[in-house]
Every structure is written in structure tokens, then in C-alpha cells.
Design a protein that fits this description.
Blueprint (H helix, E strand, L loop, with lengths): L1 H6 L4 H7 E2 L9 E4 L2 H6 L1 E7 L7 E3 L2 E4 L2 E5 L4 E5 L6 E5 L6 E6 L6 E6 L4 E5 L4 E4 L7 E6 L5 E6 L8 E11 L9 E2 L1 E2 L7 E3 L14 H4 L7 E7 L12 E6 L5 E3 L2 E6 L7 E6 L8 E9 L2 E2 L3 E5 L1
Antiparallel strand pairs: 1-17, 2-13, 3-15, 4-7, 5-6, 6-9, 7-8, 8-15, 9-14, 10-13, 10-15, 11-12, 11-14, 16-19, 18-19, 19-23, 20-21, 20-24, 22-23, 24-25, 24-26
Length: 309
Amino acid sequence: MRRLATAGLPAVSFLLICIFYAGSQTRAAAAVFRDRAAFEAAAQNLRTLDFENQKPGHLPSVAEIDGIRFQNFFGFSNLFRNPQTGNILLEAAGLPEISRLTIFLPPGTTAVGCDQFSRPMEARTSTGESVTMTPSDTSNFVGFVSDVPIASLVLTLDFPEPAPNVLMDNLTYGQRRAGNEPPRPLLLADAATGRAAAFDSVALTSEPFGVATPRTRNLSDDGLTRVTLLVVGVRLDAPGEAAFVRASAVDAQQRVFDLPVEAVGGAKNPSWLAQVTVRLPAALAGAGDVTVSVNVRDAQSNGVTLRVD
């Protein structure tokens, strides 16, 4: 992930463009919720963006808040304080014929919902599920839980004329709950190359990684390289989380190498991004391309490829 590595972390705008989780985007079986409590019971690892820490004012047609991209295809958006409730809301103005706001969700999102105050308005996911909210609705909430990743949520309407502006609050996103299973960690990869989104934890350089690095670079006694992997879908910002995280690499001969986990944590912006820093063992020297994965509380991630010289 070359540009990310040279720019440091976070490089949010580039991150949104270049990372992905390689999963199916076919139409899925998704549950639709009009009750927030029921939605939250069917999901886990939820985060809510309520705009309260945002400064009211105009936004460009494409805006990023906490690493989430909001795209208004037909005009500018606006953050304003509702005089009745005191809450800060997001308004997306449209043309007289149509309004449409597309929200591009973090990789691996399988649950999303929001409070929507314009009527009528259609909420539609990239997986094909939709709800048309009408003036007679008794609930302002609409949510979806899917068994495959939801890349985007679209709030739109092309009737009546003039079409009402999109008016929303409390965007909530996370992963679906499947029984008692913990959320699955997802390692990020560069969309252009399909290779791991990873960097030297001290030099902030990308692959290939040498197993041994000069002591002046990694400030350790053993001279071994530490590599930071980017992860979504799990929370790793609580004290002691490193004890529940394991990592491994598999080489071309299918030999498995443990990668000792030395640090985990969450990023401040975007808040949905986590980091796992591992030590490359000396036995991995010259391995070439290896497939790296992590395990968090017995939930196994996908595998991503990186090169070790």
C-alpha cells in the first residue's frame, strides 16, 4: 500500500479509495428493521455517527466524516442544528425532480441503519434491499442486516415534485449478529494490487519487508521488523485486547509461522479502523510471498498477501 505507507497513518481520503475486502457483492438475504432496538439486537460491534461533534455549516457534494464518504449527486449538503431538538442533522439538497445521498460504508459492514426525517424517502442498500418511508410511518428509523457486506446506503426520492431534501441523523453501522459468534476480523488490502494494507511500524514503508532491520529503525534489541496490519470489523481499543489476538503467515510450501502480536489498537480517525502490529520471526527470512491472517477471540480473518525478503 505504497501511498498510504509514505504518507503515514491515517491517510483517510486515500484509504477510502484503495482498500477493500474481497467478498461477494451479490444480492443477499437481508433483514429490514423499522425499530432501532430490534436492529441493535440483530447486530454487533456497532458504532454511531450522530454528527454532534461536527461544526454546523455547508459541506461539499462529496464529504468525509470519520472516514465515511457522503456523496450528494445533485448539490451540496449541510449540517445544521434542529431548533426543536437541538440535535445536529445532515441535510442533502437535491434538484426539484430528485434527491439522492449515497453513504459509502466501511469495508465489511453487514449492518447499517439511520434516523431519517424526510417523507417520503427510499432507503436502499447496495445488496438490493429497499424500504420506502412514507408520511404515515410511525418510525423514523430504518435499518438493514445482511449476510454479505453492504458497500453503501442510498437515501433517494424522485417524487413528488419538488422532491424533499434528505434529512438524516444517527448513522449506525457494524456487523450482523450470528448466534453467539464474535465479529469476524477483516484484513484490508490494496484495491489496485490485492496485496495487504500493511506497513513497517517504525519506518512506515510498505512491502517488501526484510525480517531484520537496523536497530536504529525499529528501536528494539532483537533487530527484527515489526509490521502493522490494518483491520476492520472488530474493536481492539480496550486495555488487554492483545491477549485475544493471534497472527500467522503461510508460505508457498504451506509452512505455518506464528507472528507474535506485540500491539493492537484503534485509530482515532477513522474510528472503525484497527491496527495489529506483529513481529516477523527470523525463520521467515527469504520466504517471498506469504499469506497473513489474524484471529480475534477465535474468529478467523481472511488472508492477505505480503512479501518478506
